[in-house]
Amino acid sequence: MYIKRTKGRTLLCLLFHIYLTDAFYLPGLAPVTFCTEKSMKSEDCEAYIPVFVNSLDSVKSALSYEYSSFNFCTKPEDETPVETFGQTIFGDGAHIQKSSYEIDFGKDENCKNLCQKIYSNNDLVSRKKLDFLKRGILMNFEHNWIIDNMPVTWCYEVEGDQKYCSPSFPIGCYVTAEGKAKDACVINAEFSQKDTYYIFNYVEITIAYHSGEKEEWGSSLGNSAGRLISAKLEPRSIKHNAGKTGEATCSGAPVLGVAGTNNDITFNYTYSIRFRENNNVRWSSRWDYILDSMPHTNILWFSIMNSLLVVCFLSGGLGVIICKDLKRYSQIDSTDSDQRELSGKFVPGSYRLVQGDVFRPPRMAMFLSVLLGNGVQIFFMALITLVFASLGFLSPANRGALKTCPIILYVCLSGPAGYFSSRIYKMMGGEKWKSNAILTATVCQGIVFAIYFLLNLVQWSLGATTEFRMLATLLISWFGACVPLTFVGAYFGFRKAPIKQPVTTSKIPRDIPNHPWKRFFTKPIPSIILGGFLPFSCIFILQFFILNSIWNHQVYYTFGFLLIVFIILVIMCLQNTIILCYLHLRAEDYHWWWRSFLTSGFTAAYLFIYCIYYFVSRLEIIGGVSTLLYFGYTFIVVFVFFLLTGSIGFFACFWFVRKIYRINPETVEENKESINEDKEIMDGLAPVNYCAEESDTCKTNIPVFVNRLDSVETVLPYEYTSFDFCANAVDETPVENLGQVVFGQRIHKSPYQISFAKDEKCKNLCQKKYSGQETKNKLDFLKKNIMKNYQHHWIIDNMPVTWCYEVEGDQKYCSPGFPIGCYVTAEGKAKDACVINAEFSQKDTYYIFNHVEITIAYHSGEKEEWGSSLGATSAGRLISAKLEPRSIKHNAGKTGEAACSGAPVLGVAGTNNDITFNYTYSVTFKDDPNIKWSSRWDYILDSMPHTNIQWFSIMNSLVIVLFLSGMVAMIMLRTLHKDIARYNQMDNSDDAQEEFGWKLVHGDVFRPPRKGMVLSVFLGNGVQIFFMALITLVFACLGFLSPANRGSLMTCALVLYVCLGTPAGYISSRIYKMMGGEKWKSNVILTSILCPGIVFAVFFILNLVLWIKGSSGAIPFGTLVALLALWFGVSVPLTFVGAYFGFKKRKRPIEHPVRTNQIPRQIPDQTFYTKPIPGIVMGGVLPFGCIFIQLFFILNSIWSHQIYYMFGFLFLVFIILIVTCSQATILLCYFHLCAEDYHWWWRSFLTSGFTAVYLFIYCIYYFVSRLEISGGVSTLLYFGYTFIMVFVFFLLTGSIGFFACFWFVTKIYSVVKVD
């Protein structure tokens, strides 16, 4: 069965573009130097020139065939280069095969025989092969050959004297039964016999090359060498002269014709080669002769000018009509009489009548938000792809790059799709965010995939097209990466407050008046049809060339024009939709949501009509299958274009509507408040206004949330509900982010009821009675944790409720937690909080803090803009919540303040299990106008006097950096400079024998190390961790990861780690390939699984321990599954993508400046400090010296539950750590090379990585000297989590040291002359 391959392509398959400068040498596109076998002196040049054959296609069919489908000459073993994802999916250029043509550089060939083909009428198989070849000739199928990553071209004259160079040439031509020459038969009068197929079985290939004369790269080559700049051929049909060989076989031979009914024929495939030197064309300009043969530039400039004129016309109309009308509107009063006068009239200012309905949610809001999310995804995908293409990063020589790039971008941009879709849906009042996320991730993609799959089924019925594994890869990318990222974006979008509209929506919808048909542009259908016309007029000229490149197989390279037209299209859709939207609002029609999307989206309908016209008038496609394929792929393109243009129009109209109603005088005050809020705080952390009487602008009830309870004496945290405290009948739990769940934070709504400005005195919350065995366990659990000093963590208005008390001197420390009680030992020693009150004195007694006095301070808004809009006498924003915990044995029979006044403390004897007591609370409000809402965290942070010692830490680190920098500078500028100068002056062999120092090991310094696979895996993961830490710290320094946004720091780090799988795979594969590794699949599997697997295994074991102990720190099973899904569904596929690009065959391994000797050099005996272990141990001292002070505060925040907020200091220390690791490793590496020890690969990694060992030692010291942790479980948990932290730090610092040393070694050996 013949193998067919479709050439159904999208408009994104615009392959050919080049930057004609030396900067074209992108990775994987480096020039190849060829030379004759006699002149080969090194591996810098190649003698054999391979010829690759691509799929065959035709302008008369939408089907394409592999080269091996025809009975051409093929190699016994099919050598297929690595194909990109885009090539395989789109079926264009897929399955490139190595041909049997043999070309040696500089060696001409004359009529060299390739193979012989015999067709017999008696042989059914050969008859079918010949019939298939005839059918291919009749359909004008063409070869696509590649030499040195350049298309082999067939140049012929077209209209006038113009010459067109086609990247393909026909397999033959046909003369009809009426004697009409078709296709290529018109070029030769010998093709004249009726009903005859002429087979092009002979090609004359002319290869031009640049010899390197007057070029730097040519100075190192000898004669008979160069770089190829073109490969052209002339196809011919020859009936070879029998009994002759060489040139005589082809000389004077007649054409080879096969009659339509004849199936008995024998002929040969032959070829000739001609080499010619051409030093006038540089290698970087070798595509010019192809591109210059396409005279498109003038008409493209005409297209741009035409589009700009339309844009200028629309811009003028937009400015004159709308700005003028808005100016008039501001002069109109808002009285009822004015509104009645404007009603039903199409006049300026009438749009104000629908301000109560303009933001009324539309029908099918979820479906609209889904389309908008996908439209945003496509917009950014198209924009980034076009920018990359215009900058030359998607080179035509890198086949499939332009197709692979959009697919990867589309998958990676699923997060924004989910985010925008959920934000729009929530703004429209939607609540089913999970359904919204599922539809966003599946509906549009499902439509495209279903059509794509059906088209593949059609081709499967005829043969085979896209392989099943490629369809499986698409599905894995869709459900494994696209869907999870969409859910992540939807989660973050839906958890934020909905977008606030500038006007309030009325309860009763307004009737829309009827307008006469002379204002047809205000009717829905005519306006939608009109809306797409002008945007399409800007693109239709360029559309012609795009369709030509897809269906007529022409080279498309003008991506600069395409980017300009794309920008013009965006502007046109914006302006056109805004004008029509404004006209509808003037007509009092407020149904703009769907109409704005469909108005600009209707551009896709014009695109479809144009594609029909192009099919009828320009294409020669025949056959039902080809027609079905054409319109199937066209529908996919049109649907994608519909989502793109529709989304552009919607967001333009959305911005415009919000803008014009924001300037409404009736909403100015409300907007001022909104603007001030935006300036004051970050999105998602907006201030809440409270007042004594609830209204639309403020709240009365102040909820109190309770977080997990923890202790400095144990690592096990517990949920609030694990204790027998007062709880709500129905547990209300806010939505928690991934970071909160991983850190074990469990937030619940408490039963404490607080109303703004309403003081409470000893208000009863609940009563607890303990008697009998069932309650004994609860009381024992409470006692045990009082002894361990467990502490509450409460939250009011997204602020921690603090307990402020005096510490050393007069300094006051405000803790974000307060104890559940305290204990006095059997010896009478007061522990923990019992020291604050002399009444806590009874031996072996547990004192329960069952009463809290809460003091809430607020800013009333006096002299603030936001305060003027509240209007209430008792209103404001909360700026602090402080409490004092007390132990009270309430006075029996009394209520209110009398129940607590003068009451003794509540003590429970160690052996007593029968007790009854109440939980109570008091609330006091006070106005404090001196503190602004945006500064309300200051009193907590100011109570932590760390600033001075932090500056001392920075200065200490800088001294170390300066010391190291001086050492490195001395070596680089003095010693190393002298070494290089001395080595480069050694011209004779006697001097060479006297070499010493690091030059002696130049033949071994780049010898691959042992365990290169493991090292490359560690380096890939180290790079992933490095960028994760760097980006997270930058975000934290900029204030995006606020302490008020709990769990955001860990969430950010986890998401970044998952999304940075691609750099990990790329770096790991590049290093591994440089070391000579070939098992790239094993490399990428280890990169994506080994290090994360170690961390996950330790984490899972620790989680099992927490599960057994019933701690809230145990991660739920669902979250573990989510983490595994992120790992295997997103991180692993992205790692494979990075590894593929790093290891693919076209991308050469990193080249070293010196060659490696075959026999390893013996390493002499080393002094103490140049031996491996002492050098590694010394290497980590200085980097650790830069961080140990900062490390103390980080460990305090983790294990002593203090707030860490000094990310600016941490970022500086991180930069200093990078510099110190780099410099220390370079210093020790230089000393080792001078000692003729060239084993620097692993040593450079371990030298700076040993900093992690010092970190572990410091953590042991911190555990022994600073912590009060007791118990085997807590100790296990402490060292388990410490091991994870140390292991991650080891990968980070080790990678920094390795790449610093790698750069240093490459640099010094690249500037020294080596024979």
TrEMBL record:
Transmembrane region(s): 299-322, 370-395, 437-455, 475-494, 528-551, 557-585, 597-616, 628-657, 951-973, 1013-1041, 1053-1072, 1084-1108, 1120-1143, 1173-1195, 1207-1233, 1245-1264, 1276-1305
Main localization, broad class: membrane
Signal peptide (residue range): 1-23
Keyword list, A-Z: Membrane, Signal, Transmembrane, Transmembrane helix
Example of a GO biological process term: protein localization to membrane
Record family assignment: Belongs to the nonaspanin (TM9SF) (TC 9.A.2) family.
UniProt protein name: Transmembrane 9 superfamily member
Origin species: Owenia fusiformis
